[in-house]
Predict the structure.
Amino acid sequence: MKLKKVMLSLGVGILAALFIGFFIDAIYPSIEYNDYCKDQFEMLQPFAKNQELCNYTYNQTFRTNCVNKEGMIKQEYNSNGCVTNELCDFCGKEFRDDNEKYNRNLFYITAPIGLLLILLGLYLPLSIDAIASGFLLSGTLTMIQITMRVFGDLSKWPRVIILGLELILVVWIGLKKVKEDNYKKRKK
């Protein structure tokens, strides 16, 4: 393949993968941490200058239970800077849970699109080989990107299974297409 065709393939591949990613983000926007935990980054209250004015008793059982349930301790202060109450805030856990669902849904949307791009790249006519190679690259990049994104939410064996299935599928499609192309060349 000449340099022009290689550059065209790279351009089509990268731009198509970016287009798919941004298009999906436009119609299915990602969730934002700040939508769940709006006041997480407030300025901390100053410690009381005179601790003798403070009489709050920390409840270690409450604190342990909060942390065990994946919550975060938030403290409320009075005007003297003394702790008056502690709350268990689950905004971070809620965000992680919803983000995991979002990433899983995104995988179910994006992986088939990546597969379709790979198929399109394999089955476009040889007369537009550079564009076909670009679609093949964009499908591969799309599959890599979405697989990496969902990996953070999966344990070891689901990771291995997903990668194995993707590899088997791409190799199977590639072998089938290579056999077809070789068969067509021999007939000519």
